[in-house]
Structure formats: structure tokens, C-alpha cells
Specification:
mainly alpha
């Protein structure tokens, strides 16, 4: 009976089987991390730069609109004085509405529309 050595061969194959299962589990975990965490990190970076860029762009546009208001109030002489003091505010408000309409138009006509067409074509 010592010739077959059932005890030793069974334990060595059991150890290899456990190691193989552990390696497979580690491989699956690494794959899941690669396929989920890496895209999420890229998405987070995309959102961070997009939000920071949007905030800076909005601040710059507000400063430009205030500068336009000051130019209209100070550099036009007496044209906007007396009963016309409201006119620079209306002009700047109109410029702001035009900027918002242009931004909305570009969003609707830009990459979003191309993506929507591709999605519709894939159906």
C-alpha cells in the first residue's frame, strides 16, 4: 500500500487546485478593476475638467458683460443719461440672451446631434 501513496498525491493535487482557483479569482478581480475603475477614473477626469472649464467660462463671460455695461454707461457720453439710463442694462441683457441662445444652439446642433443620429442608425 505504501507504493501508491494516496495521501501525498491527493494533498499535492488539492494544493495545486486551490492555488489555481486562487489565481483564477485574482485574475477575475484584476479584470473587473481594470474594466470598471479605469473608465471611471477617465470619466472623473473628464467631468472635473468640464466643470472647471464651464465655471471659468461663465465667470469670464460675466466679467465681459459687466465690462460692456461699464463701457455703455461711461464711454457713450450723455447719450444714455437722463431718462435713457435703463438702455445699457437692456442692451447687456439682450447680449446675455444672445450668448445663451448661441450656446444652446451649439449644444443641440453639435456633438449631441451626431451621437443621437448614430444611436438612431444603430437600432
Amino acid at each position: 500500500m505504501a507504493r501508491f501513496r494516496f495521501g501525498r498525491s491527493a494533498s499535492s493535487s488539492d494544493g495545486r487546485l486551490r492555488q489555481s482557483g486562487s489565481d483564477a479569482l485574482q485574475l477575475v478581480l484584476d479584470y473587473l478593476k481594470q474594466e470598471t475603475l479605469t473608465p471611471l477614473k477617465g470619466l472623473g477626469r473628464f467631468l472635473l475638467f468640464g466643470i472647471v472649464g464651464s465655471i471659468l467660462l461663465c465667470c469670464g463671460l460675466v466679467l465681459l458683460l459687466v465690462a460692456l455695461l461699464r463701457v455703455l454707461q461711461e464711454e457713450t457720453g450723455s447719450f444714455f443719461s437722463g431718462t435713457m439710463t435703463w438702455a445699457p442694462y437692456v442692451i447687456v441683457g439682450g447680449a446675455a440672451v444672445v450668448l445663451m441662445a448661441f450656446a444652446a444652439w451649439r449644444i443641440a446642433r453639435g456633438p449631441a446631434r451626431r451621437r443621437r443620429r448614430r444611436a438612431d442608425a444603430g437600432r
